[in-house]
Amino acid sequence: MKHYDMIIVGAGPAGLSAAIEAAKRGMKVVVYDENAKPGGQLFKQIHKFFGSREHYAKIRGFQIGEKLLAEASELGVEVVLDAIVIGIFPEKEVTVKIGEHVTHAKGDTILIATGASENMVTFPGWTLPGVIGAGAAQTMMNLHGVLPGHRVLMLGTGNVGLVVSFQLMQAGCEVVALADAAPRVGGYGVHASKVARCGVPFYLSHTIVSAEGEDHVTGVTIGQVDANWQIIEGSEKHFDVDTICLAVGLSPMSKLCDMAGCDMEDNPAKAGFVPVVDEYGETSVSGIYAAGDVSGIEEASSAMIEGRIAGIAAAVKLGYLSEAEGTAEIEKQKAALGGLRQGMFAPGMRGKQITETEEGIAISQNLLQYGFVSDEEVERFPGVTHSSGIHPVMECTQNIPCNPCQDACKNHCIKIGSHITSLPSVDPEAKCTGCGMCVAACSGQAIFLVREDCGDGTAEITLPYEFLPLPQKGEKGTALSRKGEAVCEAEVVGVRTAKVFDHTNLLTMKVPKEYAMKARFFRKGEPV
Fold first, then answer.
1. pLDDT, tens only, 329-338
2. Neighbours of 492 (CB within 10 A)
3. Minimal CB count within 10 Å: which of 50, 287, 362, 409?
């Protein structure tokens, strides 16, 4: 039987981060993962992360996964794939099925970082081929290069539903609508806005009535729900689709924690049945830790920090790190985690009705109900300013933990301050050079460079563009509003790409100047 200082179950963001911290201190670490590739959800994440530098802000998820794997490899972490941990027994003995063989290993400490599984909802036709989880669709597209369908309806407007909807469009699918039984968009407003301005309608307080088709999905009917979650007769709407994606939440995969004898709780704030852990991620069983979604559903950035804390704590427990050194390191990580757990979407804010930002600005109700901020509402936010010449317009309207735009501008045009969730504002004394770094750095694609009057009756808008093929200079098309409606003809006057932009291209379009603060996306094809 092999012996390790630390056995980690799950090679996702939490597991790899813990392995790195433990191995740094000289611990012998093995990571078991049931998948053929390590990295967990990270390699499905092609979007840029939120947070600050310490949280890997503005770095795409798969790039973070590559960094973690490389670091773990350099430190000598043993990663065993296609390895299903089927049991954790007394004395921290682990039983693992690798291929056709069952083996045993013993650890002085164990970290359970098994993540979460997708929730499903049932409706007539839900078992038809073509009804899939949003995470499964993301796996097909971003890991295997396979389109899950051509015309898709997404159920769920949390961050998963919003992010995957955008990635479906990037892959070439048509997203016909997003529906959600909840009365409000559940995810970040910037994610919803970038979907809405592509022309995708949102149907809040709607759910699926039925899926149609004989041997595969050919259509779907949704209907509005009342206060008791019952379908309102006569509110049904039909869409011809070949795919229905379900993004209706995640549940912690905590069975191993329960098997190991850890105290468990049914905690709605953590999305289900989870182990009770202390501030270091240690469960009620000494030396067994839990980190990431298995101990409560959060973002991957939080999972990485929880993993680091558990790895450091295990090193202290086994004497590889002094208590004083460990405490200092853990306090740094806790401060970073605290930064992510602020703002409107903090774990403690779940279920609460928020009417104002931290700055006392009324929340956009249009954003919550329809996925986009109205032309009138957007003007009340500090990032939306008017001036002569080119200037940034930041349509960031919610307090989320993110500040890479502040660091992106060399002239310090953009201010957020020390509080990571503060709304960005423009320094009127600073001069914008139009470099576009802020546009490319914004993880929510919520920053635009605007020249409101070019002197010839036109305006120029530089926007983030992540679709292929790229439009060419001189190409004419249609400018779309925040709602995704055609507002005017637009001409591409420039497309900038650069390594430092990390695949966020900067498209500059010329429109009549009266649409300078309304046009927010360029659609290729016959102009309106």
1. 999 999 989 8
2. 20
3. 362
